[in-house]
């Protein structure tokens, strides 16, 4: 422990903390983007035309099984060079797009599992009540499909929070970037990087506990409903 | 694309150590020794609570400064960081699967007068492992994606070479990165099929 210096720690702390706003802001922006874009994937996969379905499935698989870091580099460095559609994006926007698209494929799967979990009778009921497609989705299916997925969506928020420091590689000035530049300047990586690790731990651990609690609560709620249903079936 | 070998060796190294750490930590968390349980619990929470890229930098830059020891090379730093991180995630799967084996199995093994070790090795473990398989496959793909981070600590993997070509010829950037993405995808394809197969294996012959 000979090289640990509290003075450096105290000096680096406010500098690293400056990046916190950007890290949090980027996390929320990416998350919102992924939440919205996730719907896009879910509905694309529901198109009942085999070739489109097949293509969408493989595109999702492609995005999910390749590293987000490379995707980030692609959007930041390569996108401006692409003919016709290429535009130069600033680091922050590229990070939102890169990480947002990457995680939207996961979020899309979460939505899908939620929609698949809706009882078949509900679809039939919507049809027999002569609901329009829009009414069916907004009034019957989605209100039942989304709440059970909330714990899973929360988990993805924490996962994304931990992936956001990747954006420091393209120059978004989050906490990791601040720590690295401090380290490069004074040649002491130890303290600033430790601060970053501690900050992550402080924020992600309580939220993980919170999500856990939420999950248990949700499970209880939905189990109860199911138990009620089955007991009804038994007596009838 | 000479970087392919580096990416593959890092993947194999971190997969091996990752599974090793996962089993050790997962079993330790089920131990009756409270000290061991708390200690591994702490390890799991720390590595799950911080991000991999931070751990990687920390191992690479901070550990040599803190203790004055070198990890040997950046290969080891990368492998250990990925293995510790995913080992922590996977230890939860190990723990969950062992706990999910029906309690009657433990009781039956006790009734057959098996020792604790026999019980775990012959009865509980084989059943738990098959539950772990699909998740382990998924994490293998995750680890493949994570190997791209080692280029940040100066290892010459696929992405590193991609970056070099890009910086020498800027207009080639789209081709280069698409090529890199496809390389990763081709590496991931067998893993995707493996995962599907493992899912089939773990479902086979199991009621409900």
TrEMBL record, chain A:
<feature type="transmembrane region" description="Helical">
    <location>
        <begin position="91"/>
        <end position="111"/>
    </location>
</feature>
<keyword id="KW-0029">Amino-acid transport</keyword>
<protein>
    <submittedName>
        <fullName>Inner membrane amino-acid ABC transporter permease protein YecS</fullName>
    </submittedName>
</protein>
<feature type="transmembrane region" description="Helical">
    <location>
        <begin position="166"/>
        <end position="187"/>
    </location>
</feature>
<comment type="similarity">
    <text>Belongs to the binding-protein-dependent transport system permease family.</text>
</comment>
<dbReference type="InterPro" id="IPR000515">
    <property type="entry name" value="MetI-like"/>
</dbReference>
<dbReference type="GO" id="GO:0006865">
    <property type="term" value="P:amino acid transport"/>
</dbReference>
<keyword id="KW-0472">Membrane</keyword>
<keyword id="KW-1133">Transmembrane helix</keyword>
<dbReference type="InterPro" id="IPR043429">
    <property type="entry name" value="ArtM/GltK/GlnP/TcyL/YhdX-like"/>
</dbReference>
<dbReference type="InterPro" id="IPR014341">
    <property type="entry name" value="Ectoine_EhuD"/>
</dbReference>
<keyword id="KW-0812">Transmembrane</keyword>
<dbReference type="InterPro" id="IPR010065">
    <property type="entry name" value="AA_ABC_transptr_permease_3TM"/>
</dbReference>
<keyword id="KW-1003">Cell membrane</keyword>
<feature type="domain" description="ABC transmembrane type-1">
    <location>
        <begin position="20"/>
        <end position="211"/>
    </location>
</feature>
<feature type="transmembrane region" description="Helical">
    <location>
        <begin position="55"/>
        <end position="79"/>
    </location>
</feature>
<dbReference type="GO" id="GO:0022857">
    <property type="term" value="F:transmembrane transporter activity"/>
</dbReference>
<dbReference type="Pfam" id="PF00528">
    <property type="entry name" value="BPD_transp_1"/>
</dbReference>
<dbReference type="GO" id="GO:0043190">
    <property type="term" value="C:ATP-binding cassette (ABC) transporter complex"/>
</dbReference>
<feature type="transmembrane region" description="Helical">
    <location>
        <begin position="193"/>
        <end position="211"/>
    </location>
</feature>
<dbReference type="InterPro" id="IPR035906">
    <property type="entry name" value="MetI-like_sf"/>
</dbReference>
<feature type="transmembrane region" description="Helical">
    <location>
        <begin position="20"/>
        <end position="43"/>
    </location>
</feature>
TrEMBL record, chain B:
<protein>
    <submittedName>
        <fullName>Inner membrane amino-acid ABC transporter permease protein YecS</fullName>
    </submittedName>
</protein>
<keyword id="KW-0812">Transmembrane</keyword>
<keyword id="KW-0472">Membrane</keyword>
<keyword id="KW-1133">Transmembrane helix</keyword>
<keyword id="KW-0813">Transport</keyword>
<feature type="transmembrane region" description="Helical">
    <location>
        <begin position="174"/>
        <end position="194"/>
    </location>
</feature>
<feature type="transmembrane region" description="Helical">
    <location>
        <begin position="75"/>
        <end position="94"/>
    </location>
</feature>
<dbReference type="InterPro" id="IPR035906">
    <property type="entry name" value="MetI-like_sf"/>
</dbReference>
<keyword id="KW-1003">Cell membrane</keyword>
<feature type="transmembrane region" description="Helical">
    <location>
        <begin position="6"/>
        <end position="30"/>
    </location>
</feature>
<dbReference type="GO" id="GO:0022857">
    <property type="term" value="F:transmembrane transporter activity"/>
</dbReference>
<dbReference type="GO" id="GO:0043190">
    <property type="term" value="C:ATP-binding cassette (ABC) transporter complex"/>
</dbReference>
<comment type="similarity">
    <text>Belongs to the binding-protein-dependent transport system permease family.</text>
</comment>
<dbReference type="GO" id="GO:0006865">
    <property type="term" value="P:amino acid transport"/>
</dbReference>
<dbReference type="InterPro" id="IPR010065">
    <property type="entry name" value="AA_ABC_transptr_permease_3TM"/>
</dbReference>
<keyword id="KW-0029">Amino-acid transport</keyword>
<feature type="transmembrane region" description="Helical">
    <location>
        <begin position="139"/>
        <end position="162"/>
    </location>
</feature>
<dbReference type="Pfam" id="PF00528">
    <property type="entry name" value="BPD_transp_1"/>
</dbReference>
<feature type="domain" description="ABC transmembrane type-1">
    <location>
        <begin position="1"/>
        <end position="195"/>
    </location>
</feature>
<feature type="transmembrane region" description="Helical">
    <location>
        <begin position="42"/>
        <end position="63"/>
    </location>
</feature>
<dbReference type="InterPro" id="IPR043429">
    <property type="entry name" value="ArtM/GltK/GlnP/TcyL/YhdX-like"/>
</dbReference>
<dbReference type="InterPro" id="IPR000515">
    <property type="entry name" value="MetI-like"/>
</dbReference>
């Amino acid at each position: 422990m000979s090289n640990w210096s509290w003075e450096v720690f105290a000096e680096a702390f406010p500098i690293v903390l400056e990046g916190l706003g950007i890290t949090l802001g980027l996390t929320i922006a990416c998350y919102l983007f992924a939440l919205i874009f996730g719907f896009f994937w879910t509905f694309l996969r529901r198109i009942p035309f085999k070739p489109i379905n097949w293509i969408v499935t493989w595109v999702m698989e492609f995005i999910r099984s390749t590293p987000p870091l490379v995707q980030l580099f692609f959007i930041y460095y390569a996108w401006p060079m692409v003919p016709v559609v290429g535009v130069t994006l600033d680091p922050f926007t590229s990070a939102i797009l890169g990480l947002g698209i990457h995680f939207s494929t996961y979020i899309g799967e979460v939505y899908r599992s939620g929609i698949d979990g809706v009882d078949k009778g509900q679809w039939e009921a919507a049809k027999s009540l002569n609901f329009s497609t829009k009414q069916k989705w907004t009034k019957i299916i989605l209100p039942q499909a989304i709440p059970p997925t909330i714990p899973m969506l929360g988990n993805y928020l924490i996962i994304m929070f931990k992936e956001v420091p990747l954006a420091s590689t393209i120059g978004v000035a989050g906490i990791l970037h601040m720590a690295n530049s401090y380290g490069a300047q004074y040649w002491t990586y130890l303290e600033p990087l430790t601060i970053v690790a501690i900050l992550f731990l402080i924020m992600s651990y309580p939220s993980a506990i919170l999500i856990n609690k939420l999950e248990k609560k949700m499970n209880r709620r939905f189990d109860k409903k199911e138990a009620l249903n089955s007991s009804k079936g038994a007596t009838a | 694309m000479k970087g392919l070998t580096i990416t593959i060796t890092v993947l194999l190294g971190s997969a091996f150590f990752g599974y090793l750490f996962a089993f050790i930590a997962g079993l330790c968390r089920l131990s009756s020794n409270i000290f061991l349980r708390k200690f591994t619990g702490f390890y799991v929470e720390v590595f799950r609570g911080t991000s991999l890229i931070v751990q990687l930098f920390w191992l690479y830059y901070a550990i040599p400064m803190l203790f004055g020891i070198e990890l040997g090379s950046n290969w080891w730093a990368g492998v250990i960081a990925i293995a510790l991180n995913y080992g922590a995630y996977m230890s939860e799967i190990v723990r969950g699967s062992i706990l999910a084996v029906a309690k009657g199995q433990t009781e039956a093994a006790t009734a057959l007068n098996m020792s604790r070790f026999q019980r775990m090795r012959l009865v509980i473990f084989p059943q738990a492992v098959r539950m772990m398989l699909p998740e382990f496959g998924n994490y293998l793909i995750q680890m493949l994606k994570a190997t791209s981070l080692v280029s940040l600590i100066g290892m010459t993997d696929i992405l590193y070479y991609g970056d070099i070509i890009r910086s020498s010829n800027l207009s080639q950037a789209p081709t280069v990165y698409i090529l890199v993405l496809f390389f990763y995808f081709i590496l991931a394809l067998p893993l995707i099929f493996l995962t599907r197969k493992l899912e089939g294996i773990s479902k086979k012959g199991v009621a409900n």
